[in-house]
Amino acid sequence: MEMESQGKPQSRSREHLMEDYSAGLGCFGWVLVILSGLLMLLTFPISIFMCVKIVQEYERAVIFRLGRITDKKAKGPGIFFVLPCTDSFVKVDMRTVSFDIPPQEILTKDSVTVSVDGVVYFRVSSPISSVANVSDADCSTRLLAQTTLRNVLGTKNLAELLSDREGISHSMQASLDEATDSWGIKVERVEIKDVKLPQQLQRAMAAEAEAAREARAKVIAAEGEMNASRALKEASLVIAESPSALQLRYLQTLNTVAAEKNSTIVFPLPIDMMSLFLNRK
């Protein structure tokens, strides 16, 4: 309910602001405009250099006449005319601008102090609002990005900060875009660049990761030994069913030993000979 009540006054203020833009100059104002026009005619063609202005394709001009914005929209790109003495204008760059968020010391939800920086991309969507509603839209957006970064990351724990950077970026973009909408600023993208952890925490996390890798390696080795034992058991059962298979395995072992460059070769006693002695006993 509070958010709705806050949003309605902003929309009403914007409507009133547009009505003020289109309001009349009054009698005295029109007299000054007429005098300015006569002065331009009297000093023609010298005054043409003061009246003709040019803005680039990526720029817009907000014209003030006696302190009031002349039209509901900005002028440009191209050529436009202003009256001397009564008119002034402000050029607004419509291109996308990027800036770095300085490293911020942030206390996470699980009481870990980290240093986080980022980058923000934004552009001017409404030239009139960016000139009339805020004194310096660029500087205000930079300061707001710093506070938004601290506010958003303060609600996250360290694990979320390291693993869910994309979600944090989207959350920051939504918060910034909503806050700067009345300034005529459109926040296009927010990215988290780097997260710097304290040295002690880095060593602790490295030790924890190493211990986890060693435990995983031991589990994998144990599983391999268990599988090898099962395979060896199955092989022994197959060999036990066929005495000739045992003899072939014996000859294969001798062939493998003989292939190596050994000075001494030990020939094991054949199993069948031992079985004969055992039968006689």
TrEMBL record:
The keyword ATP-binding does not apply. It is found in: Membrane. The chain crosses the membrane at residues 21-44. Keywords: Membrane, Transmembrane, Transmembrane helix. GO terms for cellular component: plasma membrane. InterPro entries: Band-7_stomatin-like, Band_7, Band_7/SPFH_dom_sf, Band_7/stomatin-like_CS, Stomatin_HflK_fam. Residues 50-209 form the Band domain. Belongs to the band 7/mec-2 family. This is Stomatin like 3. It comes from Scleropages formosus.
